[in-house]
Every structure is written in structure tokens, then in C-alpha cells.
Design goal:
- The complex is a heterodimer of chains A (504) and B (35).
- Chain A is built from 21 helices and 2 strands.
- By secondary structure, chain A is an all-alpha fold.
- The longest helix of chain A has 29 residues.
- Chain B has 35 residues and is an all-alpha fold.
- Chain B has one domain.
- The longest helix of chain B has 32 residues.
- The radius of gyration of chain B is 15 Å and the shape is rod-shaped.
- The chains are: A mainly alpha (504), B mainly alpha (35).
Chain lengths: 504, 35
């Protein structure tokens, strides 16, 4: 009897990546329509061309893997689909940027796409204040889709529930299921996001109108700012970011939406279906409130010490705004980048760096360590101290509350420590790279914390003039930070294994 | 109908929490810098 030929898993991986690529191609018709509406014919043509190329690439991948679609992917392969789709998606989504002529190089285009998809918000685009509406729509659409997740998008609209889909969903650093299936969970995530898109666009349009923008610009700016706020992205249509509007209404409304955007989708689902008490019991909201309060105190004290802002209103609108923007990993700014380094002083910058690294909630649009992991580590730490101080009979099992009471287990603690350690190592290496590029320690650490936590606040390091290798390093940091390391490590191992087989 | 009410109440509750965090920021700013 002939031994059965082992199945080549490259094709099923390509099959699923193809769906993500296809959805990204279809998405490009939205900015194309905006360009047509505003008679930006050149940009519209670019989007039609690049959408066709992306869709064709997606269809080719789906067709090449179609025969193997019934093959079950392992967890490792599912995560390879997620990280591979993010990488290939970035390369293809950068094409409209490249042809638009708004960037100095293709690397800069890829940097901005990765920054958008990972909801970071650092950007290298040129002449931002005079961008076409089509390109602006694409920038904000990328960050909106990236917040929910590219794989989540493809799962929600293009695939059926299969055993492999959950593995891809997990690969995108979303490990919570609102429903038993990954596809129904993805659809629910999009449902929640679309409800908030309607509410948020209305509120932000009103804020933009009150700031003095004409109605059609107010609508576009309102929608774009909302998309960025909800996705904790940080992109804005103007180079001065939120500072451009000089509007307290706009600042307060953005805080509300990016704080909500940084919540766990499982929490949203629980609250929107009637479990409102969850908001004050959930480990993530409790942890976030505590860390935000403590870091607000430190930032305010640091700014006070340097006599940066003359009164409480200015301290709130500048100090608190940047802090909460950093902590939710949004990256909206109401100060100029250089002010951080030249005015804020070391204490406030240190608090900002911590806030950016801590980040928002797990299974949300936010980045960073995540409040869940900080809560788990704190609970484990408290448990260990109790174990040392109290008699054995009085030591109980530790629980955390997230939707339901969960007993804290060693694997959970180990996983939390592993991811946090990976973030810290990435932050240290990235800071070192910044210093090699000639930037002082404070600037390097701030910018790297911003890239690692997918924040987008800039201290002035990220410009088109920075060295290409630093752009590439930040791009990789944003990618691994968003996918929480495992998927990218799995992709690296997968490539090495395949390459090794070919060479061997 | 019940679902829609629950949805609106949920959105209001989330906005209330975000608003509470804003109040924390205001209070800390006022306490440290003075009004």
C-alpha cells in the first residue's frame, strides 16, 4: 500500500488569507466613491485600479486554495493566516497611497498603512492639510477596520463558520467569543461598531459644526474623527490633529468615544444586552480607572512642578487629554509634538510612557499590555503576598471578575507575564534603535512606547526624514504589538520551517 | 422594543462611565493646580 501523501498546508493558509485580501479590495470602493462624489477623478481612478488589483490577488489566492478548504488548520496555522494577512494586506493597501503621490517612498506608504491598521496613528504622509477626501477616507477607513480587525472583517462578511475560523480569530489577538462561533462573534463586533458609528458620527459632526466648519466638511471631519476615536487610532484629517479645532466640545466628545472604544467587546456586548453592572465590576474597567487616576496624579504633579500650564482648565485640556489619549492608546493630540520634550519634563513624560505601555482592554481596538493582564498580575501578586503573610488555612483561591467570576489559574498568570515581558523587551529594543538613530533617551523611549502600545502620540521622532531602518523597526513593532507577538512568531517559525525544507 | 431600550441604556451607561473618568481628570487637575 502506498503511503498517503502529506497535505501541503500552504494552500489552505492562502485560501483564508485570500478572503482577507478580497475584503480589503472591496473596501477600496468606499474611498473611490468619496473621490467620485468630490470630483477627485485621479484619486478615484487610482482606487478603482488598486481595488481591482487587490481583488484579483484575493480571488487568485482563494481559487488556488479552494481544493483544500476542508482541511482543518492547526492553531499555529490559524495564527499564520492572521499575521500573513496583516503583512500582505499592508503591502496591497499601500498601493493607493503610493500612486497618490503623497508619500516620499513605498516604505513610508507601508508605514502609514501599518500604523492605520494597527490603530497606532503615527504618520509619514506629506502635506496632510491638503489631502484629497478620498485619501483621507482611506486613512480613516483603514484605522476603523484595523480596530475591529481585518480578519474579523473577512470572517463577518465573507466566510462561513468553520473550525479553522476561530483559530484565525485568535491569531488577531482577540481571544474572547461573544457567541460560540467565530463568525457570529465577528458579526456581533461589527454590529456594535456600526451602532456606535451612527451615534458617534452624529455627535462628532455636531462638535465640528460648533467648531465652525461648514456642514459637508463638518460631516466628513466628524465621521473621520469618530472612526479614529472609536478605533483608538489617532489619525485626524489635519496635521494639528484635534488641536486644529480649538473646541472643548470636540475634546470632551473624543475622550468619551475613545474611552468607550478602548473597552473589551465582550464588555460592550454584556452592557448593551442589559448587564450594566458589569461596568463597575469588570476587572478591566476597575484596573483602567485605578491606573488612569494614579497616572493623572503623577502627570499633573509633574506638569505643576514645571509650571507648564497656568490653571486647572489648561492642565485638564492639555495634561489630562494627552494622558487619557495615551492610556487608551488613541494618540489624539492637543499639543505640538515638540512640547512634550521641551515643556513637559521627565516626570510627566515618564507617566505618559507608562500609560502608553499599559494600554486599554483586551479584545478591544486598543493596544498595550491591556488592563486585563495588569489586573491579573496585580491579583497574583496580592495573592502571593497573602500566601506569605497568612496561615495556609486562610489563603483562598483568587478570582477575577470579567463577565463572570473566573478563578485565577497558573496558566493565566504565566500567559499574562509572558505577553507583558514580550512588550517590555520590544520596548527596550525599540528605544535602543531610536538612540542608535541619534535621538536622546527620552524621545526614543516616548516614541517607542507609542509604537509598542499602538498609541500614535509623537514627540517628534516619527517624520519622513527619520532613517529607513528606524521606520522599518517601528513598522514591525506596531505589527507585533497589535497581534500580541504569538501570531508573528508563528509566521516566522512557519517561514523558517518551509524555507528550511526547501534548502534541506 | 426591549432590545432597543437595553441598547440605548447600555450606550448611556458606557458614556456615563467615560464621563466619570473625565470628572476624575477635572477633579485631579483642580486639586493640583487650583481653579
Amino acid at each position: 500500500m502506498k503511503p498517503e501523501k502529506p497535505v501541503n498546508k500552504l494552500f489552505p493558509v492562502l485560501y483564508y488569507i485570500g478572503f482577507v485580501i478580497l475584503s480589503l479590495g472591496i473596501l477600496q470602493f468606499i474611498p473611490a466613491a468619496v473621490s467620485v462624489f468630490y470630483a477627485e477623478w485621479r484619486i478615484a481612478l487610482i482606487f478603482v485600479l488598486t481595488a481591482s488589483m487587490t481583488i484579483l490577488a484575493g480571488i487568485f489566492m482563494i481559487l488556488s486554495g479552494r481544493r483544500y478548504r476542508s482541511i482543518r488548520l492547526s492553531f499555529g496555522e490559524g495564527t499564520v493566516v492572521a499575521s500573513g494577512a496583516w503583512l500582505l494586506g499592508t503591502l496591497l493597501c499601500a498601493l493607493p497611497y503610493y500612486f497618490s503621490g503623497n508619500f516620499k517612498s513605498y516604505l513610508d506608504c507601508c508605514f502609514d498603512v501599518m500604523s492605520g491598521l494597527t490603530t497606532t496613528g503615527l504618520c509619514l504622509i506629506q502635506d496632510m492639510d491638503h489631502l484629497s477626501n478620498g485619501i483621507n477616507m482611506w486613512r480613516h477607513l483603514l484605522t476603523f477596520v484595523g480596530g475591529q480587525g481585518m480578519v474579523v472583517l473577512a470572517l463577518a462578511f465573507l466566510t462561513k463558520d468553520q473550525s479553522s475560523t476561530y483559530k484565525m480569530y485568535v491569531g488577531e489577538a482577540k481571544d474572547e467569543k461573544l457567541f460560540p462561533g467565530a463568525v457570529s462573534t465577528s458579526r456581533q463586533i461589527w454590529f456594535i461598531s456600526m451602532i456606535y458609528l451612527a451615534v458617534g458620527t452624529a455627535v462628532m459632526t455636531a462638535a465640528a459644526l460648533s467648531a465652525g466648519l461648514p456642514p459637508d466638511r463638518a460631516f466628513l471631519h466628524g465621521m473621520w474623527i469618530y472612526m479614529s476615536a472609536w478605533s483608538t487610532g489617532g489619525f485626524a484629517p489635519m496635521s494639528q490633529n484635534v488641536l486644529y479645532y480649538h473646541s472643548l466640545f470636540m475634546e470632551l466628545a473624543t475622550i468619551v468615544f475613545f474611552v468607550i472604544g478602548s473597552f473589551n467587546f465582550a464588555l460592550h456586548y454584556a452592557v448593551l444586552t442589559g448587564k450594566r453592572k458589569e461596568l463597575r465590576r469588570n476587572i478591566e474597567t476597575v484596573t483602567f480607572t485605578v491606573t488612569l487616576t494614579l497616572l493623572t496624579l503623577v502627570t499633573a504633579a509633574g506638569l505643576m512642578r514645571n509650571h507648564v500650564y497656568p490653571n486647572a482648565a489648561a492642565l485638564f485640556r492639555k495634561g489630562f487629554y494627552q494622558l487619557v489619549s495615551g492610556h487608551t492608546t488613541t494618540g489624539f493630540m492637543t499639543v505640538y509634538a515638540k512640547q512634550f520634550y521641551h515643556e513637559w519634563g521627565d516626570i510627566a513624560l515618564f507617566a505618559m510612557i507608562l500609560a502608553m505601555l499599559f494600554g486599554g482592554s483586551a479584545c478591544s481596538t486598543a493596544g498595550g499590555f491591556k488592563a486585563m493582564r495588569i489586573g491579573i498580575i496585580f491579583t497574583a501578586f496580592r495573592s502571593e503576598v497573602r500566601r506569605m503573610l497568612l496561615p495556609e488555612t486562610r489563603v483562598r483561591e483568587q478570582k477575577i471578575h470579567h463577565i463572570k467570576d473566573i478563578v485565577l489559574t497558573d496558566p493565566m498568570i504565566k500567559s499574562a507575564f509572558f505577553i507583558v515581558t514580550a512588550y517590555i523587551v520590544t520596548f527596550v529594543l525599540g528605544t535602543l534603535a531610536g538612540m542608535f538613530a541619534g535621538f536622546p533617551f527620552g524621545m526614543s523611549a516616548f516614541e517607542c512606547a507609542s509604537a509598542t502600545g499602538n498609541v500614535g502620540l509623537s514627540i517628534g521622532v516619527t517624520t519622513a526624514a527619520m532613517p529607513a531602518y528606524l521606520k522599518l523597526i517601528y513598522l514591525i513593532i506596531m505589527w507585533v504589538g497589535r497581534l500580541e507577538f504569538m501570531s508573528v512568531l508563528a509566521l516566522g517559525a512557519y517561514v523558517i520551517r518551509r524555507f528550511g525544507k526547501k534548502c534541506g | 422594543m426591549k432590545k432597543i431600550i437595553s441598547l440605548i441604556a447600555g450606550i448611556a451607561a458606557e458614556m456615563f462611565l467615560a464621563g466619570s473618568l473625565i470628572v476624575i481628570g477635572l477633579l485631579v487637575s483642580a486639586a493640583i493646580r487650583g481653579v
